[in-house]
Amino acid sequence: MNKRVITELLLGLDHATQLKFLLQNPVGPDGSVAAKELVTNVQRSFAQTLSMLTSSQPARGEDEVAQNLLISGEDASQVASIDPRSEDSTESRKRSLPLAKDRRGSYKRRKTEQTWTIVSHTVDDNRAWRKYGQKDILNSQFPRSYFRCTRKYEQGCKATKQVQRLEENPDMYNITYIGFHTCKDSLKAPQMVTCSETWDSFLENSHEDLNVPNEEQQHECPPMRSQSPIVKQECLNDETDPSDLTDANLWSDLKDFELSNDKPALKISDAFMNLLSEFGHEF
DNA sequence: CTGATTTGACCGAA
DNA sequence: TTCGGTCAAATCAG
């Protein structure tokens, strides 16, 4: 059940992320329709997660097959898979001393960590990452970049991610997250549900949707439905240097109206992120 | 100065 | 050996 919860959270996070960008780049009448759809999906994910957590199904099906899970319509980003990475626990890290002057090395191979992959048109996930490597990958025209959490040493956070452009669509990125954040994201206080009444009614009204989840939207062909308004603006910002556009920078250029509309989407993203972090080491 | 990025060397696994 | 992930010195950015 943990994987289902995490998968559901990832799904909701993805929709929230899409919603965020949709609100940042409003695109006419279609935009509001897409936004409503996304909000519905976010609602559904929250409600579904809650129902999983509150239902006393002791199903600790630890060995569910890694499932491929593609998300509805808007193709801005999709959760592709979740899989446990099992690797040796042979803690054999021979530390060859820096005898020779260029003697480097000494790094641990990754142990068992949760990994999941999304496809997104942006690499900005509102987390603080620091690039530590880049490699050309065999049979790939684009290199793969390696990032770790900036608080790796401050707080021992083990989260890393790998980013690589898609061959078939260089405007999009394949982002593999490895491990959950164990650090506190000090950038923003996660007081997400201060207005609980709003959320209560929020979920209350979505119960109908629970019984009839919009499965019909979850098709199999991610690259096909590319007419999403979200991807419209493959603007220059994620072209060359995708890492420097923080949301703070974006927001500073927005009017108050847009800002007030935009923030909730980001808070939803944070909520999902926080939940993912929680369940990351709880399960 | 500090902190992030670049980039080739190093390392383990296959 | 090759390949992909990591390290870290050099470099860049503020």
TrEMBL record:
The lineage of its organism: Eukaryota, Viridiplantae, Streptophyta, Embryophyta, Tracheophyta. InterPro entries: WRKY_dom, WRKY_dom_sf, WRKY_plant. Residues 76-111 are annotated as: Disordered. This is WRKY transcription factor 29. PANTHER family: WRKY TRANSCRIPTION FACTOR 19-RELATED (PTHR32096:SF146), WRKY TRANSCRIPTION FACTOR 30-RELATED-RELATED (PTHR32096). Residues 124-181 form the WRKY domain. It comes from Vigna unguiculata. GO terms for cellular component: nucleus. Residues 84-105 have a biased composition (Basic and acidic residues). Pfam families: WRKY (PF03106). Keywords: DNA-binding, Nucleus, Transcription, Transcription regulation. It is found in: Nucleus. One of its GO terms (molecular function) is transcription cis-regulatory region binding. SMART domains: WRKY (SM00774).
